[in-house]
Design a protein that fits this description.
Layout lengths: L3 E5 L5 H13 L4 E5 L5 E3 L5 E3 L2 E2 L10 E4 L5 H7 L1 H12 L4 E4 L3 H6 L7 E2 L13 E2 L4 E4 L2 E4 L5 H12 L2 H10 L6
Parallel strand pairs: 1-2, 1-6, 2-5, 6-7, 7-11, 8-9
Antiparallel strand pairs: 3-4, 10-11
Helix pairs in contact: 1-5, 5-6
């Protein structure tokens, strides 16, 4: 099974990252949090300090791996400015490999031209950065190899969608029931 890398920078939205990490780990999906800053401690946009599993220089991304971008500001801005990550995203897109982004972070994919011809969603106000995409207001959208989510309120749903894609629909339904995640 592929590994998921969650890329982290100071100013990320903590829940958007950690809810997805938690859901995937509950499902037995291998996921590592990765700092792009050179420091293994990240401070989120709400002042929560998080220690990452790895530093960027310690990972080797494979074609079957999943690249995940949590949102938040200015974390999303830092992800989009980190050239090694942008190059990895472009290479991943060219190979048709799986990626996911939530909240403001789909803007990174859009600014790189990776959403051309795809349906995508994002946090309101970032739509103009979804270059070439057909914006939809759904909470979570998967189009081909790219999954996007609108914001923190959909972080658990994003995690469950990734479980569905990486494992099975039955696994996602079982986990949804186990965590008592029911639609209102």
């Amino acid at each position: 099974m592929s590994k998921v890398y969650a890329f982290m920078a100071d100013g990320l939205e903590e829940i958007e990252c950690l809810a997805v990490v938690d859901i995937l780990r509950r499902a037995g999906v291998e996921i590592e949090t990765v700092s792009i800053t050179g420091d293994d401690w990240i401070t989120g946009s709400h002042g929560i300090r998080i220690i990452t599993d790895k530093l960027w220089k310690e990972i080797e991304i494979g074609e079957d791996d999943v690249l995940f971008l949590p949102g938040g500001m200015p974390g999303t801005k830092y992800l989009g400015e980190f050239e090694p990550l942008c190059e990895a995203l472009k290479k991943h897109a060219a190979a048709g490999s799986r990626m996911a982004a939530i909240c403001a972070a789909p803007s990174v994919l859009g600014d790189l031209g990776l959403l051309n011809g795809k349906k995508a969603t994002c946090y309101p106000g970032f739509e103009e950065h979804l270059t070439g995409a057909a914006y939809v207001s759904d909470g979570v959208v998967t189009d081909g190899n790219i999954t996007t989510a609108r914001g923190m309120g959909f972080a658990i749903d994003l995690g469950l969608e990734l479980v569905r894609l990486l494992k099975s629909g039955d696994e996602a339904k079982s986990l949804k029931a186990a965590i008592q995640h029911n639609a209102l």
